[in-house]
Specification:
The complex is a heterodimer of chains A (about 220) and B (about 140). Chain A is built from five helices and six strands. In chain A, about 30% of the residues are buried. With about 220 residues, chain A is α+β, with helices and mostly antiparallel strands. Chain A has a six-stranded antiparallel sheet, sandwiched between helices. Helix content of chain A is about 40%, strand content about 15%. In chain A, helix 4 runs antiparallel to helix 5. By secondary structure, chain B is α+β, with helices and mostly antiparallel strands. In chain B, helix 2 (about 95-110) runs antiparallel to helix 3. Classes of the chains: A alpha+beta (about 220), B alpha+beta (about 140). The interface of A and B includes residues 100 and 101 of A. Strand 4 (about 130-135) of chain A pairs antiparallel with strand 3 (about 65-70) of chain B, so a sheet runs across the interface. Chain A: One of its GO terms (biological process) is endoplasmic reticulum to Golgi vesicle-mediated transport. Chain A: Pfam families: Sybindin (PF04099). Chain A: It comes from Coemansia spiralis. Chain A: Keywords: Endoplasmic reticulum, ER-Golgi transport, Golgi apparatus, Transport.
């Protein structure tokens, strides 16, 4: 039984192109959660209940999505109602956190490369950074040959998730994102993954490994 | 087998480093300082980004070990904020007792030395020798 908390995918431009979470409590960085909930509640209260149709539906789901944390980022392209505005406090915390996660993983990789061999080439993961552990979680790192970085956080019991991350890269990311004909091939711009099939397959796979004990 | 040992003071400065084997690269003094500063930073950040559900009694204490292809890094932080970092082979799963002993040596041979300046690099032959013995015992 492995508790998987979050998955981040970063492209070559250090941009977070995908984020999703499972079994996760409150975000450590969202300090203004209660105020956001309070303002949300107030604006909902000021709305007339008899207000017609679409707008109310849209706002309703939006607020519901806000008071709980969004489970994935970017949000699904088909449901525009869930598209949280970039100014919302929750989203900012998520992006700030993604930057911190990237910074920590990137710096760790670099000092390990240095320690591994003095004249290691710039970039890549020749030192073989796999994971680090604190007393509350473990962060696993996998870098594809093309420089896409997968960062998975789990509880500390999951010692090696390298095969899992490689599987996500090889059989889910490549198959459902890269082979998609609508995949953004522009090497200079990064685009978030807004692909429902990718998300569904990924969710199934994570559910599968978090219920089988064999991986740990 | 312990390949190398680093001691970092409260503010992220390197106060001791020594390689015991040739297995990891011998860092120049400049690179060792960068290593210490970077480790200090990621140690502090890692405790801030903990995704684990929060329990009031459990606080994240920062990085305790890093696994890589060729070696493993262990970190022990004392209550006063000094970090003892050991680079070992992959067979060492738990090194807290050895790092604890290194902390005792530090207290005995560096702190109790009246000529030792706090937070400054440790230059003591006695400390070197005792540490060497400790590493050989592991």
């Amino acid at each position: 039984m492995v508790a998987v908390y979050t998955l981040y995918i970063f492209d070559r431009h250090c941009e977070c192109i995908f984020y999703t979470e499972w079994n996760r409590g409150r975000s450590p960085l969202s300090t203004d959660r209660s105020t956001a909930a309070a303002t949300g509640g107030r604006s909902e209260g000021s709305k007339e209940p008899a207000n017609t149709g679409h707008a109310v539906d849209g706002t309703g789901t939006h607020l519901a999505g806000d008071s709980q944390r969004p489970l994935v980022w970017p949000t699904s392209s088909t449901s525009t109602a869930h598209r949280v505005s970039p100014e919302s406090p929750r989203n900012i915390a998520m992006e700030e956190e993604a930057k911190l996660v990237y910074g920590v993983a990137f710096s760790t990789r670099n000092i390990i490369n240095k320690l591994n061999s003095k004249d290691s080439p710039q970039g890549g993961n020749p030192g073989g950074f796999m994971s680090f552990a604190t007393n509350t979680y473990r962060l696993h790192y996998y870098e594809s040959p093309t420089g896409v970085k997968f960062i998975l956080t789990t509880d500390i019991a999951a010692v090696s998730m390298q095969p899992v991350l490689e599987m996500i890269y090889r059989n889910i990311y490549v198959e459902y994102v890269v082979k998609n004909p609508l995949f953004n091939v522009d090497p200079l711009a990064s685009s978030p993954i807004e692909n429902d099939y990718f998300r569904a397959v990924l969710n199934n796979y994570i559910r599968e490994i978090s219920t089988t004990a064999s991986i740990a | 087998m312990i390949h190398a040992l680093f001691i970092i003071n409260r503010s992220g400065g390197l106060i001791y480093n020594k390689n015991f084997t040739q297995h990891v690269a011998q860092l120049s003094s400049n690179e060792a300082l960068i290593f210490a500063g970077t480790f200090h930073g990621i140690h502090a950040l890692a405790s801030r980004i903990s995704p684990a559900p929060r329990r009031d009694s459990v606080k994240d204490l920062g990085i305790q070990s890093i696994d890589t292809k060729n070696f493993r890094i262990h970190c022990y932080q004392t209550p006063t904020g000094i970090k003892f970092i050991a680079v070992t082979d992959l067979l060492q799963t738990k090194l807290s007792s050895a790092l604890n002993k290194a902390y005792i040596l530090y207290s005995d041979y560096a702190l109790k030395n009246p000529f030792y300046n706090l937070e400054m690099p440790i230059r003591s032959e006695m400390f070197d020798n005792k540490l060497q013995q400790l590493v050989q015992a592991h």
